[in-house]
Each structure stands twice: as C-alpha cells, then as structure tokens.
Amino acid sequence: MAEHKHGTMNIREHEKTFAGFVRFAGWAMAVVIGILIFLALANA
Questions:
Q1: Measured between alpha carbons, how far is 44 from 42 in angstroms, rounded to an integer?
Q2: CA dihedral sign, ordered 35, 30, 13, 9
Q3: Cα–Cα distance between 39 and 44 in angstroms, integer?
Q4: d(CA 2, CA 25)
Q5: pLDDT tier for residue 26 given thresholds of 50, 70 and 90
Q6: pTM here?
Q7: What is one Pfam family matched by this protein (predicted)?
Q8: Which whole-number Å values give the CA distances from 7 to 3, 4, 15, 18, 33, in the listed order?
Q9: How confident is residue 43, by pLDDT bands cut at 50, 70 and 90?
Q10: 35 has pLDDT over 80
Q11: Which bin fits 7, alpha (ψ -120 to 50), beta or left (φ > 0)?
C-alpha cells in the first residue's frame, strides 16, 4: 500500500461540489423564507 502524503490529493472537484451545495442551500433558504412571508401575508 502506498504511503499517504498529507496535502497531495487533488480536491478541486470536492471544492466545486461544496460551492454548488452552498449556492443551492442559499437559494433554497431564500425560497422557503419567501413562501413563509407569502403565507403570513395571505393569512392576515
């Protein structure tokens, strides 16, 4: 088995995936907040 060398793995794809996840989570949160505001105003 090869000896592991810390910091040598290419993590570019991991970083791109995580950035996409964070972007998606931000949009999803904005949509949920928008829906909650709409429901609060429609029920008034």
A1: 6
A2: negative
A3: 9
A4: 37
A5: very high
A6: 0.70
A7: COX4_pro_2
A8: 13, 9, 14, 18, 39
A9: confident
A10: yes
A11: left
